[in-house]
Structure formats: C-alpha cells, structure tokens
Design brief:
Pathway: Aromatic compound metabolism; p-cumate degradation; acetaldehyde and pyruvate from p-cumate: step 2/7. InterPro entries: KR_dom, NAD(P)-bd_dom_sf, SDR_fam. Its EC number is 1.3.1.58. It is built from eight helices and nine strands. The chain is of the alpha/beta class. The chain has a seven-stranded parallel beta sheet with strand order 3-2-1-4-7-8-9, sandwiched between helices. It has a two-stranded antiparallel ribbon with strand order 5-6. It starts with 6 loop residues before the first strand and ends in a 6-residue tail after the last strand. Bound molecules: 1,4-dihydronicotinamide adenine dinucleotide and the ligand CC(C)c1ccc(C(=O)O)c(O)c1O. 1,4-dihydronicotinamide adenine dinucleotide (NAI) binds next to helix 1, strand 2 and helix 4.
C-alpha cells in the first residue's frame, strides 16, 4: 500500500512514539486521524503533521478503553475522511509493580486497579479499535493494514505482570486478526519495541540508563524514527501480515 493520500488512525498519537510515527507518515503523504486524551498536545501534533506533510491531519479526543467513545471516534473519522486505510494501535500505559513484594518486613502486592488499568488500555483498547476500524473497512470496502504496538516485555518482564500479559495478548491477537481479516484485504502485524529514547527513558537515573544500555547488544536505545520506519515498512509491504517485528537492538529480557 502506498501511503500517499491514505487515511491512517494513530492512537496515543500526541506524544512519544505515536507523535513520531504521525510526523513520519505525514511526511510520506498520509492523511492522519490522531487519537488521544490530551486536546492541547493533539492540536500541537496536528500542526506539526501539517508542517511535515502539508496534508490533512485531524485530532480526536477518545479514550480507547471505552467502547462507546471508540465507536463514535471511528464513525467520525470515516465521515470526516471518507475512508480508513490504516490503524496504529499505539496508545499504552504502564503501572509497574511486583505481584508480591516483601521489603523490610513489609508485604505489598500489585493492586487489581493497577492490573485492570493496563489490561483495559493496552489490550481491550487494541481489541475495540481493531474491531471498529476493521468493521468500518469491511463495510466501506477499504483495504489496508492494522499495526499493533506490542513490546519486548511480552516475553515476561519482572514487575510487569499486567503489561507483559497485555502485550503478549496483543501479539497473539495480531496473528488471530491477520487470519480473520485477510479475506477482506486487511493485513494485521505488530512491532515489539525494546527500549526506545522517549521522555520516560530520558528521565531515568544516568546510572540505571547506563546499566540498561550496556545490556543491549547494539549498545544504544532505539530511536522513535526507527519504530516509525518499521511501521512504514508494514504499511508498504503487501505480503507482510500476522507477524511481529522485534525492534530491540538484539536485547532479550
Ligand atoms: N517507549 C518505549 O521504550 C516503548 C514503548 N512501547 C509501547 O509503545 C507505545 C507508545 O509508547 P510511548 O510513546 O513510550 O508512550 P507515551 O506514554 O509517551 O505515549 C502514550 C500515549 O498514549 C496515550 N494514551 C494513554 N492511554 C490512553 C487511552 N486510554 N486512550 C487514548 N490514548 C491514551 C497517552 O496520552 C500518550 O499520548 C505504547 O503502547 C508502549 O507500551 C513498547 C516498548 C517500548
Ligand atoms: C520495558 C520496556 C522496554 C518498556 C519501557 C518503557 C516503556 C514506555 O515508556 O512506555 C514501555 O512501554 C516498555 O515496553
């Protein structure tokens, strides 16, 4: 699929990897629907995308974990743009913690709220957006691709029982949806990033950052543009579906 003039929805599109993918795809002529919770940051990203590509970019306030909001958002995007050719399920949150922890004689546990919040956004949100976008694409006869952002943590990372479960679920359902949706001309694939240079990693203690970077075979973190490059590959390569691209500098957790 050539990106020029194609309509792509990016969730979590106002900062971090979502914003980087938005600017990268805008520069390649895509028309963008950016979905997030923060109106101000969304508007700022819409302006940046218009500057990067000169094309259309619009903002949509929507919590991907809420069914009615996702249904409304997808309907609005279809009405505004007339077609939907792509979706990047990028919105995600972290609520890390050990499931059970004993420190200085004190026992603490991962709360159900921490568990549920991550499952709601990182797994249910991906299901809802995929279901609604795929249904609209099938209804309208639009062909295209859906990209899910998983994580290196899908293999099982200490302190991330909630996040690892959600990201493993996303990787498994990528295969399910690739099989289910191929007949409608919709491909589904995923990217599993390792540590990427974002505001979160920039705020880590230098010693922790150094230790983490030393464990990566390529001895550096990934750049947001390298994730956007992989997303572009998936959109453009019509034989790629049902697979996860590991983009982690060779690191295994
Ligand atoms: N930064 C990294 O090193 C890695 C990131 N990832 C994944 O990449 C994706 C993006 O990560 P970052 O850019 O680092 O995160 P980020 O926190 O900078 O951006 C995430 C965006 O998602 C939005 N969001 C959160 N909950 C939402 C909801 N319920 N509805 C709509 N939007 C919502 C946030 O407002 C934010 O703009 C996430 O899925 C994350 O799990 C995976 C591996 C590594
Ligand atoms: C532990 C992995 C590499 C990781 C690190 C940071 C974020 C983030 O800031 O969102 C992730 O989503 C991760 O999967």
């Amino acid at each position: 699929m050539q990106l020029n003039d194609k309509v792509i929805i990016i969730t979590g599109g106002c900062q971090g990897l979502g914003r980087s993918m938005a600017e990268y795809l805008a520069a390649r002529g895509a028309r963008l629907a950016l979905v997030d919770l923060n109106a101000e940051k969304l508007d700022d990203t819409v302006t940046a995308c218009r500057a990067a590509g000169g094309g259309e970019a619009r903002a949509y306030l929507c919590n991907v974990a809420r069914e009615e909001e996702v249904i409304r958002m997808v309907g609005q995007v279809a009405e505004d743009f007339g077609a939907i050719n792509g979706l990047v399920n990028n919105a995600g949150i972290l609520r890390d913690g050990l499931t059970v922890k004993l420190k200085d004689g004190e026992l603490s546990t991962l709360s159900l709220a921490q568990w549920q919040a991550v499952i709601d956004v990182n797994l249910t949100g991906v299901f809802l957006c995929t279901r609604e976008v795929a249904a609209k694409m099938v209804e309208q006869g639009d062909h295209g691709a859906i990209i899910n952002i998983s994580s290196i943590s899908r293999a099982g990372n200490m302190g991330q029982a909630n996040y690892s479960a959600a990201k493993a679920g996303v990787a498994a359902d990528t295969v399910v949806w690739a099989k289910e949706l191929a007949r409608y001309g919709i491909r589904v694939a995923a990217i599993a990033p390792g540590f990427i240079e974002t505001e979160m990693t920039a705020s880590m203690r230098p010693e922790a950052l150094e230790k983490m970077t030393a464990s990566i075979p390529l001895k550096r973190m990934g750049k947001p543009a390298e994730i956007a490059h992989a997303a572009t590959f998936i959109f453009e390569n019509d034989y790629f579906t049902g697979r996860v691209i590991d983009l982690d500098g060779g690191l295994r957790l």
